[in-house]
Structures
1.
Amino acid sequence: MKIVESSHEAYAHVHHLRCDQQKIGLVPTMGALHQGHLSLVERSQAECDVTAVTIFVNPTQFGPHEDYGRYPRTLEADLECLSQRSVDLVFVPQQPALYPAGYSTYVEPPAEAELWEGQCRPGHFRGVLSVVLKLFQILPATVAYFGQKDFQQLTVIRRMAEDFNLPIRVQGCETVRDDDGLALSSRNRYLSAEQREAALSLWKSLRWVEQAVAEGQRDVANLEQTMQQKLYDAGAEKIDYARIVDRESLASLSAVDRPSVALIAAYVGKTRLIDNLLLDAPGPPDH
Ligand code: AMP
């Protein structure tokens, strides 16, 4: 496994492989790797000739009062884990390699980024898209793998790739969960045993809405109200949003009458958690 800190070296390596007609999979991460990240790596390894992983805690996507400083950093364990899986290349830039003195160019995010996470975390998607675009340039891969766990992030990255004609395929991958349904997240390690139980409120609320839709409930206002109540009842302390939206545009809906997605961001203690679930409404409307 090759470990590279320099952008030039990373580019030269991947560019060379690309010229050699190799299919290259890219898995961008912020480290503190768990099975969710590793599922992306496994998918890339199954589909590509070469797999490159990046580990970089990107400062520009964190707000001033967010957890950039205390975000878990476990580089040694991450590299060990990737080495065991025979990943080909790991790019681990230091901050000045991506943001040298005088750096000032950013991507203006698309309309889908203005909603939900974008409203709660101003500047977040500007930071995400800027670093993702840079990583796509530095590691000119064939396919990039992202988790549906960050549904809105996946949507805006897809949109950027399309709008900027980027020569890379953006592949979404299913959310990996613990046995009880909790979506794996690097931030779960902030949770005490009691808080972990409360964190299950997101999954319980999503499962409830899925069931309600399957039973024919279509009214989004009613569904959202009960989703929020279920979240509080099961231990969430503050809700940023708990919404049912159009799966493509992420716009609000009045009825679940098309492919939709339920999106939640909520706090347990000081830890902000997000999760989502795709909803399909094939059956009859409200009765
Ligand atoms: P992060 O390190 O949190 O920036 O995540 C890196 C990538 O892993 C992103 O594409 C995430 O959507 C994805 N990811 C994080 N958690 C999960 C999960 N539980 N299941 C699948 N993918 C995930």
2.
Amino acid sequence: MAGSPLVAPPTDILQSSRPTSSPFKRQTSAVPSSNGNGNGTPRLLLHANNPRSVPDSVPPMTLDPIEQLNEDEKRKYVKGKKLGEGTYANVYLGHARHDPSVLVAIKKIKVQQQYQDGMAPDAVRELKYLRELHHPNIISLLSVFSSKDQNLNLVLEYLPLGDLEMLIRDVDRVRYGAGDIKAWMGMLTRAVWFCHDNFVLHRDIKPNNLLIAADGEVKLADFGLARAFADPGRRMTANVITRWYRPPELLFGARHYSGAVDIWSVGMVFAELIIRAPYLAGNTEVEQIALICKQIGTPTEDNWPGVTQLREYTVPSEVVAVWGKEAYMGRFGAVGADGVDLLVRTIALDPKKRITAREMLEHRWWRTEPKPTPKEDLPRKSGGEQKMGADLKRRPGVVEDENASRGAKVARKLDFGQPK
Ligand code: AMP
């Protein structure tokens, strides 16, 4: 990366709202994903017809053109107070230089000597996938620049209303109902559908990675564990997804898996939104498996052909039959029989039988009463509390070999190729 800082403004910061067309709100990428000259270097945008993108003062022309562009990009933003700190990034509040009312979050990736090119694989993944994914329910990457010390800075849309976890936990002050859950679940499901439709697995879906914009829109964030899954033969690590949201196939050590891993997490978020507590909160992986067996049913060859072949398959000796839909009505009935039907389909033990994101969006629950609450009417976090960056430290696990080596490769090449 030496001497060639990244300059790739993925979107114009001033274009905060984008049109939507299909029922799934699919977006075509506004980000140039190739430079068109075939030499693999990131395309550099000047926004020549956009005077607002021109910095107020032009740095000396001693810089080479790429450095100049980086300098221009950097000068568009003013960094403010620190919002949070984590293992691979510090998050700062920032604003556009030309208009202090345009707020952004600047995620400054720390240089880490133990990694090739000094960039943690999490940071590389986050940058790579956020550049590719443009959707109203996925956090927007507005710009990227490197600072003097070669630190990489991701400029993200600022999402000031906290995250879903804060709302779920604030039982005393935040009240919400079935229409609100339906709205939040709709936004989450559209985000996941969009990732999967673009062959990206998020691999860390949980309430505190669902950030909330000023207008109430929920945005899926933290793509530090994401990866492409276009190649079905490729082995992937099982050590992903925060334990409470981790599906049984990963707990059993599966190295080949699909979007179904994210759907299980979506199901866990759904359950948590309803009961306002994590549904299956194991303290260890063994305990997590035991909870799944007890509350959902024991995975066996009968309900999941091939499960016993997974390399870490172990279950408690007492086999529990898979619970039927009716068993969930008592605890989860607040979302109605259709909602419970959808929930149960997201937590099918066998990943092949689990509902897909697309099928979720086609489920009848969205069309039954109550309607999803309009986003501007959704409950918001109560005043005073600020939780910024605390969760930077909470990682589901260390991503090992396949991702580490892949991450290093991506870092070296700074490969911002075609969207997947
Ligand atoms: P992340 O590493 O993306 O999970 O970010 C860690 C924490 O920083 C989040 O849980 C938020 O509290 C805060 N944060 C990250 N990105 C933003 C953003 N775009 N707007 C506001 N806060 C953010």
